[in-house]
C-alpha cells in the first residue's frame, strides 16, 4: 500500500494539498503550523529523520530550495529512496526531484499535474529523449530484470547514449509488442539469439526465459511464462525440493525468474514443499482433479504409481500442459529423489499465450462501426496482425486501415465457413497473428461458437477481445440511459423470430411483459411480426428508436411510437445493420439516481 506524505509550510498551500488528498489514496498532510486538516510536526527535519523511509512518496508544496535542503541529509540510493515531488502553491509546476523511475516520482508528478491542471517537470534522460525506461518498463508486464557483464547504471547510461543494441524477443506478449512499436533507431530486433553477431553490437536486451552466454553487457527481461508440473510422494523435504527444482531449471537453460506457477493434482494440495516454494518465490500454486488431468490429449506416458495414488494417469506433465494451455512440453518428465528416498517428478511447459513460434487467433469486437470505437487492445491487434479476416457485410472496411504493411486483409462476406477456416489455419501454421474481426461485441449474435469449435478441434490458441455493442452505441446516440431509477432496471437484448427459432420462454410476446428496455438485433426484416408481438404488452404510444448503421458515416436514426414501427422500417427500406430500441427509457429525463443525492451515504461520501 503506497503512503504519501504532503508537507506544507504555509497556509496558502492547504487548498491544493487538500485537493490531492481527495484525489489520491493514503495521503496525509503535515505542517509545522498545525493548519486545519493537517497533522502537526515540530520540524520538517525531525519528521524526515524519523519517517523518511516509512512513506513511499513525499510531496513538498512550496519553494524547491526548502525541499532540497530538507531531504539532502537522508538520501541514500535510488534502490530504496522514496519518491520526492516539489510543486508550487498553485500546482502550476510539479517537479520530480528524486527517485524518478525506481521510486515512481516521474509517474506521480504526471498524476499530480493532471489533478492540478499544471505541468509535470521531468528531467530524466530516458523520459526527455523518449527512450525506454529500462529499470521500470518491466513492472507493467511482471518481468524481472537481470544484468550480466554490467551494472544497472552502466547499462542504462550506455543505452541512453545510443550504443548499438540488439533486442532479442524469445516470447510474444503485450510488452514485446510495445517494444517493437517504440523501437529506437539504434536498436535492431532479433528472434533468435544465434542470429546476433556480437561484433555488431555494444549491448543486448533479451526478453526471454532462457539462459544464454555472451561477453556483451546484457539486460535480461525475465517474463513470467514457465509452468512447472510436479508429482511427489508424501512429505518430501522442502529445502531439497526447492534446490532440485532450481537446479532442474538451470540444467535445462531456463531462468528461475520466469517460473510463474507450480501445478499438481488436487490430492497434493497440502504438500508442504509445494507451499513453501510457492510462498518463497511468489509463485501461483494450482492443483487439478485427476479427471481434468486425464482429459489432456497429448499422448502422455501412463504412470502406474501416479494412477495408483491419485487416480491421474500422469501428474507432472499433464498439470504443466493443462495450466499453460500448451500442446507440447518444453521439458518432459524427469525423476528426482530427496535424501530420505522420497520421489518426485518435474516437467515444464510454456504459457501458450507467450509462445512466439505458435500462431495465434484473436476474435476482436470491432464495435458498432466508427474505427475510433474499437478498443485500444483491438486496435493494437489490428496494427500487428498478419491476417485480418473481417465480416465485410457488417464491419466497415475503414477499420482494416489500421493494418500494417504486408498484412493480408480479406472480406469474409462471400466465403464459406470452411474457406474462412482454411485461410486462418494456413496463417496460423506459419506462426502468424490472425484477427477475426466481428461487428459490435462478438459474443452477442457473433456466430463465433462454430469457429471456436474449429479452433479447439485443431488445437489452435485463441482469445476473444470484447467490443462496444450496437445497443450501447444506440444509448449514446439517443442520449438516453436505458435503465431508469425506480422504473426500469433491466435491458433485454434479443431478436425477432425468423428462420432461427426462439425458445418458448424467450418469445417476444413473453419478454414484452416485463416492460423493460428491449434492444432488438437482426429484426428489421421481421418488423411486422415484431411490432405485433410487442403491442401484445406495450402501449401503442411506447417510444421507439430505429437506428441504422450506428456510428457509421451513413448513420440515420428515426424516433417514433411503437404503433408506427413497421411503417418507419418499411418506408426507409431498412434490412441490415439496424438496431431497434423499445421502451420509455428513450429520451427519459426523470427519476434522479440516489448515487449522487446529498442525503445518500456510501463508502466514498459521508451523508450530508
From TrEMBL:
The reply on keyword S-adenosyl-L-methionine is yes
Using the record's annotation, list all stretches that form the CobE/GbiG C-terminal domain.
Answer: 226-349
Alphabetical UniProt keywords: Methyltransferase, S-adenosyl-L-methionine, Transferase
Ranges for domain Tetrapyrrole methylase: 361-566
Q: Name one GO biological process term.
A: methylation
Describe the location of the Cobalamin biosynthesis central region domain by residue ranges: 132-223
Q: What is its EC number?
A: 2.1.1.133
Report a single Gene Ontology molecular function.
precorrin-4 C11-methyltransferase activity
Pathway per its UniProt entry is: Cofactor biosynthesis; adenosylcobalamin biosynthesis
Principal EC category = transferase
- What region holds the Cobalamin synthesis G N-terminal domain? 47-127
Q: Which CDD domains match?
A: Precorrin-4_C11-MT
Q: Which family does it belong to?
A: Belongs to the precorrin methyltransferase family.
The protein in question is named Precorrin-4 C(11)-methyltransferase
